[in-house]
Specification:
The protein is an alpha/beta fold. 38% of the residues lie in helices and 15% in strands. It is built from 10 helices and 10 strands. An 8-stranded parallel β-sheet has the order 3-4-5-6-7-8-9-10. The N terminus is likely disordered. Bound molecules: nicotinamide-adenine-dinucleotide (NAD).
Length: 282
């Protein structure tokens, strides 16, 4: 990536030496009809990292937006994910080809196993297929999403590659201290999905009081909290003013006391499924 592409946004170095912008744009629940315009608006606002997935049904539109943005392909970091139902090796390799086709790209940056689906198939076989994909050079980096410690431990024991990232649900009501520490101990970067708990934390009085003091919104304070913890985030919005608001995070800082006060809001409350119990195949 060029320096210009990364104005203001720090990068995090992954375990294969590549760098990921710490702030990106999430596209879950952005309908295909809206996804191209929303992604273009995010790129115009300065985002250079887009998080999509086969499951979201909008890889094509995300790819079109990047192609039409006028930005160099190398200046936009692209993540996609292997959908549930394609965990067997041959299915995974075919799904990877479809993702590349849909994105309209010869290669992209980061591919994740979307869910471990512990009661369905075998995610170790899937991970070995991910290693094959990476060896072709058509994806630079591979990682996982929604993996718990036991799932990661099996990959460490039975395969050659440590995932570069683990994308898990994290926000002030689900701070995930234990799993985040386990990721860090193994050189895995934590990506925090639903960083705003899909909006649930935005009226929290503790966060609101900090926001009033620093003259920012509750969304900005929450996202800044994640960044200061070192996690990668990609909030989602289709409202242009919010897309811009969620990007304006690099000209203020929270104190250590603020960081602790927000972390103390933890209630182990998920907005999404528990990965140990989720075995859904579309
Ligand atoms: P989020 O926590 O980013 O919240 C998004 C919602 O918050 C929006 O729909 C909007 O209603 C509200 N919002 C956003 N910015 C706001 C602002 N500035 N002011 C007021 N309200 C605002 O939730 P998310 O979309 O679920 O998560 C972000 C991204 O994480 C997704 O788009 C997707 O890319 C990824 N994700 C991954 C998984 C996974 O299993 N790997 C699961 C869920 C999400």
């Amino acid at each position: 990536m060029t320096a210009e592409a990364l104005i203001n946004v720090p990068t995090v170095t992954l375990n294969n030496g590549t760098q990921i912008p710490q702030l990106g744009f999430g596209t879950y629940q952005i309908a295909p009809a809206d996804a191209k315009a929303a992604t273009l608006a995010a790129l115009e606002a300065g985002y250079r990292h887009i998080d999509t997935a086969e499951m979201y049904g909008n890889e094509k539109e995300v790819g079109q937006a990047i192609a039409e943005s006028g930005l160099a392909r190398a200046d936009v970091y692209v993540t996609s994910k292997l959908n549930n139902g394609f965990h067997a090796r041959a299915d995974a390799l075919a799904a990877f080809d479809r993702t590349l086709d849909d994105l309209g790209m010869e290669s992209f940056d980061l591919f994740l196993i979307h869910w471990p689906l512990p009661a369905v198939g075998d995610y170790v076989e899937t991970w070995k297929a991910m290693e094959e994909m990476q060896r072709t050079g058509r994806v630079a980096t591979i990682g996982v999403s929604n993996f718990q410690q036991a799932h990661l431990q099996r990959l460490f024991d039975e395969t050659d590659t440590v995932p570069a990232v683990n994308q898990i649900e994290v926000h002030p009501y689900l701070t995930q201290e234990t799993l985040r520490a386990f990721n860090t101990e193994h050189g895995i970067v934590t990506e925090a999905w639903s960083p705003l708990a899909q909006g649930n934390v935005l009226s929290d009085p503790v966060i609101a009081a900090i926001a009033a003091r620093v003259g920012r919104t509750t969304a900005q304070v929450t996202l800044r909290w994640h960044l200061q913890r070192g996690d990668v985030v990609f909030p989602k919005s289709v409202t242009p003013a919010r897309v811009a608001e969620n990007f304006a995070l690099f000209d203020f800082e929270l104190t250590d006391a603020d960081q602790l006060a927000i972390a103390a809001l933890n209630r182990d409350e998920r907005t999404g499924p528990n990965p140990d119990e989720f075995n859904y195949i579309p």
